[in-house]
Amino acid sequence: MAKDSHRVLILGGYGFFGRIIAEGLARVPGLDLLVAGRDANKATALAYQLGLRAENARALDAGDPRLASVLRKLGVNTLIHTAGPFQGQQYHVARACIEARTHYLDLADGRAFVTGIGTLDAPARAAGVCVISGVSSLPALTSAVVDLHLPYFKRIESIAIGISSGAKLPGIATVRGVMGYCGKPFQVWENGAWVQTYGWLDRRTFEFPKPIGARLLGRCDVPDLTLLPARYPGVRAVSFHAGFASETGHKLVEWLATQVRSGRVKSAAPYAGALYRVGRWLESMLPDRGAMFVRMQGTNDDDRPRTLNWQLLAYDNHGPHIPCGPAIALTRKIASGKPPEPGARPCMGMLTVKEILEPLQGLSLRELAPAVPTYVSS
Q1: Angle at CA 82, nearest 5°, toward 199 and 368?
Q2: Distances in Å between the alpha carbon of 349 and those of 128, 141, 144?
Q3: Cα-based angle 327, 331, 333 (whole degrees, multiple of 5)
Q4: Would you say 157 and 237 are in contact if contact means Cβ atoms under 8 Å apart?
Q5: Residue 377 domain-assigned?
Q6: What CATH number is given to the structural domain containing 52?
Q7: End-to-end CA distance of the chain
Q8: Phi, psi (degrees; rounded to nearest 5) at 20
Q9: Cα separation of 66 and 124, whole Å?
Q10: N or C end of the chain: smaller count of CB under 10 Å?
């Protein structure tokens, strides 16, 4: 490692999202990349594929009690944690990073995990490192979209978010995570109060631009449901729905959710492996297009209703790259000597939409920015 280089370790580096991030960081000037995971052979194979050397691959387990000392020995400046699922996971990796004085980022989508990261704020500040959770589509990109459009509202009253995938499935860990709350109750902010809903139920149909078209979406338990009402005081409703390229697949998951809700099935989590295998088998038969939207509603300075819709369309199965944009962008920022302030918190207010999408240039993505006025009336 060069004396002035910034060493980054990707934990779960040869996994689904880890591999995409590794590809995005492998040739960044001044950055020394380590690919790490439990399987040394897989880590080494990816290192070679990226044009790196065998010494850039490491066998490392997220649960290793010696993790902090390993990070110190390797001289890791920033660790990116992609080894999910994060639902139910504890903060062992983040605590080890604080002990080793290593910056920590993760792609967590578990609501409790991301919203609870602030419990590590005091030790992170004392160590002089940033510990940032949810450096992904949620809440990094979603909050950046809302932040960008806040000036066009006098008051923002509701935020609705939705994601529909293309044919390519994420890793099995992600599938296990989302199936864990299938049919299970959780709280959402509606009409200025917390109400109960159920995972993968409350079906909605969202009409994306062609050739994507209409997609079925269901309720999902994500960090934004807690974070956005707190970040934007006065907002009376925040919702998140997600769905699949296959309408049949969506209805199957929805049916499982009804079985869990009724008590006939204890949990849908045991079915994650089978669903993943079937999804992989069907990939070549399904559309390679996915999309996400953020719909903001409120009033303008004249107290007239205003609705702004931001969308990001993905083609050629490039949708799974989107969650990796924030991690690549924030790592580059840290390596360039511009890290966030020390402390532990969710990834909001650290990156702009432009910064998040910049590492994804060259992919088959199309941003549809809402038509907004060129000025805000006073």
Answers
A1: 65
A2: 19, 10, 7
A3: 120
A4: yes
A5: no
A6: 3.40.50.720
A7: 54
A8: -65, -45
A9: 19
A10: C
- Residue with token string 């979209």: 145
Rounded to two decimals, what is the model's pTM? 0.93
**In terms of domains, do 79 and 145 share one?**
no
Do 195 and 55 fall within a single domain?
no
167 and 76 inside one domain: no
Tokens linked to 344: 């532990």
pLDDT tens-digit readout, 94-125: 999 999 999 999 999 999 999 999 999 999 99
Q: Round to whole Å and give the CA distance between 261 and 250.
A: 16
Domain span including residue 84: 6-136+323-360
Is residue 332 domain-shared with residue 279, that is, in the same domain?
A: no
Provide the number of structural domains found in the chain: 2
Q: What is the pLDDT of residues 315-373, one digit of tens each?
A: 999 999 999 999 999 999 999 999 999 999 999 999 999 999 999 999 999 999 887 65
Strands (E), the chain: 6-11, 31-37, 57-59, 78-81, 103-106, 130-133, 155-164, 185-190, 193-198, 204-207, 214-219, 237-243, 290-299, 305-314, 343-346, 365-368
**CA-CA distance, 304 to 344, in Å (whole number)?**
39
Same structural domain for residues 163 and 258? yes
Return all residues near 46 (Cβ < 8 A) that are at least 6 apart.
Answer: 13, 14, 19, 22, 35, 57
List CB contacts of 368: < 8 A, sequence separation 6 or more: 209, 309, 310, 311, 312, 313
- Those residues whose C-beta lies under 8 Å from the C-beta of residue 339, and which sit 6 or more positions away, are 103, 130, 333
